[in-house]
Amino acid sequence: MVNLRGEPALIGAWVLALTSSLAVLFIGEVLGQMPCLLCWYQRAFMFPLAIILGFGLWWNDPKAGRYGVVLGLMGAAVALWHMGLFVGIIPEPIQPCTATGPSCTDDNQRILGLPIPLFSLLAFILITALSALSLKDNSHDT
User: Fold this and answer.
1) Are 20 and 53 a contacting pair, CB within 8 Å?
2) Structural domain boundaries of the chain?
3) Given this structure, which CATH class describes domain 6-137?
4) What is its main location (predicted)?
5) Which helix (H) or strand (E) holds 124?
6) In terms of C-beta density within 10 A (0-12 exposed, 13-18 middle, 19 or more buried), how is residue 46 classed?
7) pLDDT score, position 16
8) Which among 40, 42, 82, 124 could bridge 117 via Cys, Cβ 3.0 to 4.6 Å?
């Protein structure tokens, strides 16, 4: 059985992964913004998080957070690279989302004044931390 202290952390990670997945689907499907290659890679790590963590909760798997840690770290690495390109730390031109349309790195593509790649990075960091916390809190369970 899942420890009651670990379950809220895993629920938080799942809600964040699900919300992030729905948000990028809204940006792509409703707003019509085609994702760039780096956005696609980040989605490749975020979408499974919502599914895997959700099933982990449903099945009361106290170790489900380990998948959140691994996928979260990998997604955070891509998001960190994306942010490095965005702020100019990595001296490589960033490829726009589409040749003629909006880009996740345009000034008009900010949310609350912050770039979309930063939101991705923050989401992956929080999901990783919450997933790790769920494992720590359940470490004495069998």
Assistant:
1) no
2) 6-137
3) mainly alpha
4) membrane
5) helix 116-137
6) buried
7) 97
8) 82
